[in-house]
Each structure stands twice: as structure tokens, then as C-alpha cells.
């Protein structure tokens, strides 16, 4: 495992999150996701800052499990950095609002360790992040397909 001590705030990289929803009766946590996450942590690409499992009942009631609460979370538990959970209760409620009733979702918050030195250099140079975003893979695939059809 990579070093899980608290990062130097001067060298913090950008922090991202994602929520992966699983429809009712399809949340098959086989360990494959934990293995891939472990590879990212071990290689020093990311540092896991928070990791939750949310279950939204058919009535909309929310159940939140921290990684430490999970019985079979060996690799996932080891991957979570020894940092205070970043998500406040209000954040979790806001994320869960997008979930459909009867579903389960995994919430992952991570630091992009690979980008830390560049981000620190930008800050030391007086720069500040003014915009960022993500291009959905579906949009990229559609663009490639459109280019191929136009040739």
C-alpha cells in the first residue's frame, strides 16, 4: 500500500468525487472494484479521502455505511487515507438526492496525487484554478464516431 499519512497541504492535488449507482438487485460487489482502486492507490495515482456506501430504500430513507462499517472491506478499508471524512452529512444528503429509490450507490472522494506537484507549482507561481470539468466518455465516443462517418 502507498503511504497513507496526511498529505502536506502545499502538495495537495485536485480532489474529485464520483457516485456510482446500482439498480435494485444488481449491486454485486465482487471485489473487482476494490482491486482496481487498490492499484490506483498503490501506484500513487490517487489517495482515497472518503468512501461510503449509500442505500436508498423504496420509501426514500437513506442508510449510510462508512468503509469501516463494512464486514468484507479489507482492501477498501486499507485504501482509505487516514484523513477525516470530507463529506459532511449535508453533502451525503445532496448526493443521495440523485439516487433512485431502492438503489445502492458507492461514493468515492479522492485526491489526484499525480497532479499535486503541478498544482503546487501553479499556486507558488501565483496561479489559481478558475475552471475545470470533465468530458463524458459518451461525448468523446460520439465525436470520434462522427469524425469517422465524415471521412
From TrEMBL:
UniProt-recorded name of the protein: DUF1269 domain-containing protein
Q: Which Pfam families match?
A: DUF6325
Question: What superkingdom does the record give?
Answer: Bacteria
> What organism is listed for this UniProt entry?
Streptomyces vinaceus
